Prior knowledge:
Elements: H1 2-13, E1 44-55, E2 61-73, E3 76-81, E4 84-87, E5 96-97, E6 100-109, E7 117-126, E8 137-148, E9 151-162, E10 176-186, E11 191-201, E12 209-221, E13 224-235, E14 241-253, H2 254-257
Antiparallel strand pairs: 1-2, 1-14, 2-3, 2-4, 3-6, 4-5, 6-7, 7-8, 8-9, 9-10, 10-11, 11-12, 12-13, 13-14
Amino acid sequence: MRVFIALLAVALLAAPARAQIDYRNLDHGRPGAVEDAYPVERYGFELTAGSGVHFSSGAERYRIVPGLAYGLFRGGEVAVHLPLAGRFGSVGGPSGLAGIDLSLLMNLSVEKVGLPALAVRLLGSLPVGATAGEGAGVTLAGLATRSFGRNRIHANVALALATPEVPEAREDVSRWSVALALDRTIIRSSTLLISELEVASVHQGEPWRYSVGLGGRRQIAATWLLDAGLRWEAQRHARSEAAVTIGFTHSFGIAEIMPRRAR
């Protein structure tokens, strides 16, 4: 726990970058559950890696999620993530690849006078790996973002069209969820701070799950940023759970992969 708190502090206190706005883009699951309605820029890439530890009465579990997103067209991105999950401490169990996650994000409209930006995301999970469980998962989400000066309000609504059976090491797929978030930009230090609240139904017939989170994103170089978050979840008749996450994002373009030949 102390190690992750230290990493979180490093992420938010690192040297600031200048003239960059990528730190404002909230990615799916990083630093929290809420994302904004804007995709990766057209023909741009984002290489991401997030990690987290979930604490629950000695049954700690970890999760590492490398991924790659690409701006396929203006207002649309595709992404692939390869989550790795497992348990440690006093409780053992399987560990390894927890599926292959594929997603498509499409921005339906940008912000206008009196109207928020709107987008939809289709997320699919394939049951590949030691901790992936059984069955594929499909989730459809609607996203909205509204700016008020340096502040933004976000609303996410998600509905699972198919829910897989997953082992305890992997995060459950919610049947439905509703999340709200407020973020504030600190322009001089290229930093974004966010607070969020989520309500979700994991299993039919069980009480709803409530969670609150705090997080931040900070640009540390022209194409690099760090993010970190704290999250607490509670469900009636169940153990509460805390989580600490940290990750990074590297943005680049096709020209960096295929540089022009010298004439």
